[in-house]
Amino acid sequence: MSINEIQSSTDTKMGKSIEALKSSLAKIRTGRASTGLLDHIEVEYYGSPTPLNQVANVTLLDGRTLNVQVWEKNMANIVDKAIRDSDLGLNPQAMGDSIRVPMPALTEERRRDLTKVVRGEGEDTKIAVRNQRRDANEALKRLVKDKEISEDDERRAQDRIQKLTDQYVAEIDKLVAQKEAEIMTV
Length: 186
Prior knowledge:
Elements: H1 3-26, E1 42-45, E2 48-51, E3 56-62, E4 65-70, H2 76-85, E5 93-95, E6 98-102, H3 108-145, H4 151-184
Antiparallel strand pairs: 1-2, 3-4, 4-6, 5-6
Helix pairs in contact: 1-3, 1-4, 3-4
């Protein structure tokens, strides 16, 4: 493995960590309705767990209400139950083959709790990025030990990996700050 391969691999892995953070932050409810809010919910469809968006169409009715239009009438009760049983604390209202999901207003206390969750997600992602930096630095040390690169090359490569780490940590901080501001906005 060469220095460039180590750096590009580390960059790719760090980028995936950022994408995972964005995905988990999208699931955290802010009081406004978002069609992505129900993406992680799975329903039992002919004996196998299936993502909600493969058995129904999720749309926004207004800023605080989602509409879930099931494609098969017999799925309405199953989808309703899946939304009710999810960890989102939502109370859907079935209306024939469509289900309305109103977003309850967030209390100040719940907003503070959600910001703690967001910070925790950000910290977990930073730990993942730092672990990827450590793995890359260990790979560089192995190259020096095997006499494939010089110590100067190793030091330069470690500096580039550190700059990459700093860049991703700054992006994580920015994403967390944006989500906290979104949550705290009444």
